[in-house]
């Protein structure tokens, strides 16, 4: 898939400050914006990468502004955790971890953040 990684992103840093989390990966169009996590650490985590790539596909499928609108609307309706775009991305992320033990899978899971954009954080990297 065609995507770009932006390290020490200004946008991801804002999200990170608002969320008070130690790391954030946020997808805007075809770019994955990172803050608090390096490109190397991020790419090493297949589940996390797969999750964010799923958001990139969602942007491509629906169009940039339309997807932002659909994402926000989902969040208003069903909450962030049940947002269908996050559910889909979580599933994509989990597929890569099927060989891991359930405990490790849970610890590696990407947390939806409650930020009104596809921004995700991880407890440990
Ligand atoms: Zn997500």
Automatic annotation (TrEMBL):
Outline the segment boundaries, as ranges, of region: Disordered. Answer: 96-125
Superkingdom as given in the UniProt entry: Bacteria
Name of the featured protein? DUF4157 domain-containing protein
């Amino acid at each position: 898939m065609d995507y770009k990684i932006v390290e020490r992103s200004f946008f991801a840093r804002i999200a990170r400050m608002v969320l008070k989390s130690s790391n954030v990966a946020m997808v805007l169009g075809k770019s994955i914006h990172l803050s608090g996590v390096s490109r190397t650490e991020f790419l090493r985590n297949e589940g996390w990468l797969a999750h964010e790539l799923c958001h990139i596909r969602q942007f491509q499928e629906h169009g940039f502004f339309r997807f932002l609108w659909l994402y926000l609307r989902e969040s208003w309706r069903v909450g962030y955790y049940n947002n269908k775009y996050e559910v889909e991305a979580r599933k994509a992320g989990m597929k890569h971890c099927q060989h891991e033990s359930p405990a490790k899978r849970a610890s590696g899971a990407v947390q939806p953040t409650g930020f009104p954009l596809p921004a995700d954080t991880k407890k440990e990297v």
